What we know:
The chain is α/β, with parallel strands linked by helices. Helices cover 43% and strands 16% of the residues. It has helices at 18-29, 49-54, 72-83, 93-106, 119-122, 125-128, 140-148, 194-207, 222-231, 248-253, 268-275, 288-291, 306-318, 320-337, 340-359, and strands at 5-11, 35-41, 58-61, 87-90, 111-114, 134-137, 156-158, 181-185, 212-216, 238-241, 256-259, 280-283, 298-301. The strands form three sheets. Strands 10-9-8-11-12-13 form a six-stranded parallel β-sheet, with helices on both faces. The chain has a four-stranded parallel β-sheet with strand order 3-2-1-4. A three-stranded parallel β-sheet has the order 5-6-7. Helix 8 links the parallel strand 8 (181-185) and strand 9. Helix 11 crosses helix 14. It is globular. The model has no long low-confidence stretch (mean pLDDT 95). InterPro entries: Glyco_trans_1, Glyco_trans_4-like_N. Keywords: Glycosyltransferase, Transferase.
Amino acid sequence: MPDIMRILFLMEDLCYGGTQRQMLELARRLDRARFAPIMLTLTGPTDLDETAREAGIEVHHLGRDRRLAPFFFARLGSALRTLRPHVLVPCTALPNIWGRLWGRALGLPVLGTVRGGGGPKRQHERLLWRLTGHMVCNSEALCEVLQGLGVPAGHLSYIPNGVDTARFCAPTEPVSLRPPRILCVARLAGDKDHVTLFRAFARVRERHPEAVLRLVGDGPEEARLRQWAAAHAAGQGIEFVPGRPDVRDEYAQARLFALSSVREGQPNVLLEAMSCGLPLCATAVGGIPRLVTPGENGFLAGAGDDAALAAHICRLLAEPELGDRLGRAGRERVERDFAFERMVAAHEELFVRLAGEARC
């Protein structure tokens, strides 16, 4: 076993997003006396490169800009030979496909990751799980899906996402004293189903015309969502804000947090919102029901059910003190169950185990 293990996180990019931020935090918090984190992306430099380097993480790219590098799948093998990781950790779909193939070809231990609700299908897990030494899911629901595809339970670990409770903390001002701002921090992509949130917001505006929906994020659906906002009266109350590394000020100014996803793992943004003392209105998909207990720290609606989502949002706007109570309960839950220390320790144990098995 080497004195310091090189752990390579293979990413599609380091754009601002939930998986990127979660893996960056994991890499940043690894015990540097035992582990040397490396990040390799299929694209060029993007949003979080500077943050990674400031944390002392070695960063490499196969491309030059935000687009996938030409023939990245062929160039990846050469990069892995040069970087010589002791454990390869591919994150998101393309890295989990090509990283596993090259990992097997080069004899590298691979810790597969399945983080999004659409991950099992996109990553062809029915076939490719066999190319991993072990796999990590960030929700118990994903573990169950993978077992249904034939992955043995002993080949899977559930490691929930972590949140920095010191960094994401509740301001002194209670949410009940804030303007009626509904916050959604999420990539503007199909899985997030923002249109359902927009339809819910249109219903909310009928009862609370002063309400504002603030979207923080970027993504391929932005043009379509802006078109929807321009074509509907409720769009006058929708604010589009680009994603950025630090959105704590957005949490501090919101009355509640809403998420209308149709597929999810365990969303970082819900943990951050809970840590900041916000009540939640979300859809009951993926690992979200493990985070949101109806009536305790928020409310759940079915995927695509804009009427139920609107009813929950309206209740929180109409009963400000309820939002205070739910927000406090969410903060207590995060402090108890989702501290980063537990997440990091679980990953470090797997890294050591996989590297040890590779030497046998």
